[in-house]
Amino acid sequence: MSDALLSPAVGAAFWSASLGAIAFSARKLKNAIDEKSVPLMGVMGAFVFAVQMINFTIPATGSSGHFGGGLLLAIMLGPHSAFIVMASVLSVQALFFADGGLLALGSNIFNIGFIPCFIAYPLIYKPLSQWGKSLSFSVIISASAGLLMGAFSVVLQTYFSGRSELPFGTFASLMLPIHLVIGVVEGFVTLGVVSYIRKAYPGIVESLSPTASTATFGLNRVIVTFMIISLFVGGVLSWFASTQPDGLEWSISKVYGKETLPEREDYIGKSAIELQKNTAVNARLGTSASGIIGSMIVLGVVFVVGLGIRSFRKQ
Amino acid sequence: MSFDREFFDLGRLDSLSYKDSLIHRIDPRAKIMVLGVFIFTVVSFPKYELSGLVPFFIYPALIISLSDAPVWFIVKKAIVVSPFAVFVGIFNPLLDKTPHEVFLGVAISGGWLSFISIMMKFFLTITGGLLLIATTSFPSICRGLRGLHVPEIFVQQLMFLYRYIFVLSEEAMRMVRARELRSFDGRGKGVRPFISLVGVLFLRTVQRAERVYYAMLSRGFDGSIKTLSEPRFRTKETLYIMLSVIALLSMRLLDLPELVGRVVMGR
To answer: How large is the greatest C-alpha to C-alpha distance in chain A, in angstroms?
Structure first.
C-alpha cells in the first residue's frame, strides 16, 4: 500500500484500527509476559526483518519471492506477541526503506500484521488444527487465506480512497489470484520452518508463546468452513473473470458512464451506489466482489453477535 | 534489491541520523507531528490537483538543505519503492480519458492529471518519511514515541528490534553469501534451501536471545530500558510546529502557484 493512493479518511481509519490493536495487544501482554520474552520478541523482529531481505526463486516461474512471516510468528509466539513484532518490523521498514510511507503504515500493519495474527491464525489455523487436520493442511490454508484477505483489504482501501481509477472488479481480479499463489508459497515455507523447528527443538513452541493458551476461539465448524470456501471461491472466480474480455470491457464502459455523472465529494457514498449498480447489472464480476464483501460483513456480524452472547453468558 | 545493498542502505541512513544540524536538534516529537500534518495535507488534495501540490516541495527541500542530507541518495531510495504506486497509478490515464485541461492547444485527459498528482503525492510523502529517519536517530524517535504515549511494550520492541537488526542481518548475510557461493544458475536458491536457511536462522535467533537476556540480566536489566536524556519541548520546538502548521495549512487552502501565475500574467 502507498501513501499516494490513500485518502486521509481511509488512512486515518486504518491507522486508528492498527493503533487500537497495538494498544490491545500491549495490554494483553503486560500481564502475561515475563522479562525474558521482551528481548526474545525484539530478536524475533530482527529475524523476520532479515528473512524478508532474503529472496528465493519460485519453482516454475523463475521469479523471486519474499516472505511475510505473520502466520509463522503467530504459531511460534502467539497472536499478541506476533502482532507487536510484525507491527514493529513494518514500522522500521516504513522508516528505513520508505516501504509505502507513513500514512500507509497504518494500513500495512492492518493488512500484514492484524489479518494474519488476529484473523487467519485464531479463526482459521487454530480451529483447523484443533479439529485434527494435518499441520500441512492447516498451515497452507491459513497462509493463503491470510494473504487473500490482505490483498482484498488493499483493494478496498484503494477503492474507498478514490485516487485510483481502477474499477473494483478489475483490481480485485489482478490482486487476488497473484496473492493466492504467494499465499500458497508462504504456506509451504511456514510449514517447512515449523516442522523443522519442531523436529530439531521439540517443546519450544509452548515455551515461547505467553498468550497462546488464552486465545481460545471456539467457532462453529460451519462458519469457518464457509469463510474459507467463500474466500477461495472469490479468489478463484475472479481469476476466471479476468480471462473473459467482456468483463474488462464492461468495467471500462462503466467508468466512462461514470464520467457524465456529477462528481460527488463523498466518495464512500458514491462507491456504495456503484457497488449496488455492479451487483445488479453484471453477474460475473459483481458476484465475486459483492460475494466476498457480503459474506465478510455477514460473518462479521455473526461473529460479533456470537462473541457478545458468549461474553454475556459468561457473566 | 540484493541483501548486501539493502543492508548498506540501512547502515547509511542510520549513520546519517546521528549527524548534527539545526534539524537534528529539534525534539523528535515535534518532527513527527509536523510530518504527520504534512502527509495529511498532501494526501488531502483531491484527485486532479497539481499546482496546489507544488509549494509543498519546500518542506523536503528545506530539510535537505538544513540537515545536509545527500539528495541523490534520498531520491534514489524513493525511486526504488515507486513500482507499486506507478503500477496502480498508470491505469488512470488508460481508464480516464475525458479531457480536463487544455494546455498549448493540447487536451490533457483527467487520467494523466490524476496520475501526475499521485506521483507528486508519492514523492512528497516518501521523501518526508525518509528525511525523518535521516534527521532523527532511531533511539530518539522511540523516545519521542514514548513521549506521545505509545504503549511501552511497543516502544521497547522497537528499540530491541533496532539493536538486533544489524546483528541478525549480518548473520543472515553470511548465510546468503554461503548460498551464493554454493549455488549456480538459480539452483540451490529455491524454496527448500530457503526453508532450511530460515529454520536454522530461527533456532540461532532463539539461542542468541537467551544469551542476550542473560547478558542483560548480569548488567542489571530490570525490564525497562533507561535513557540518559529525556526529550524536552523548548521555544525552538513550539516555533517549528507553529510555523510549519501555519505554512502547510495556508499552502493547502490557497493555491499559491495559481496566484503567482495570475499576477505574472496580469490578471
So the answer is: 65
Listed residue (B201, B180, B198) closest to B189, CA to CA: B180
CA distances from B178 to A193, B77, B182, B183 (A): 20, 27, 6, 9
* Global ipTM: 0.84
Residue type, B18: Y
Interface touch A165/B201, C-beta < 8 Å: no
In A, which residues are within 8 Å of B100 by CB distance? none
CB contact under 8 A, A3 and B216: no
CB atoms within 10 A of CB B42: 26
Helix (H, G, I), strand (E, B) or coil at B103: strand
What does chain A come to in residues?
315
> What digits encode the pLDDT tens for the residues B94-153?
877 777 776 666 777 778 888 888 888 888 999 898 888 888 888 888 888 888 888 888
What phi, psi does B187 have (nearest 5°)? -75, 145
Q: Is B50 at the interface with chain A, CB within 8 A? A: no
Say whether pTM exceeds 0.80.
no
State the burial class of residue A97 (Cβ atoms within 10 Å of its Cβ: 0-12, 13-18, 19+): buried
Residue B7 — very low, low, confident or very high, per pLDDT cuts 50/70/90? Answer: confident
Surface-to-core class of residue B190, CB atoms within 10 Å of its CB (0-12 exposed, 13-18 middle, 19+ buried): middle
Rounded CA gap, B39 and A218, in Å? 42
Positive or negative, the CA dihedral A155, A158, A159, A164 is: negative
Q: What is the DSSP letter of B223?
A: S
d(CA A215, CA A235): 29
User: B201's torsion region: left (phi>0), alpha (psi -120 to 50) or beta?
Assistant: alpha
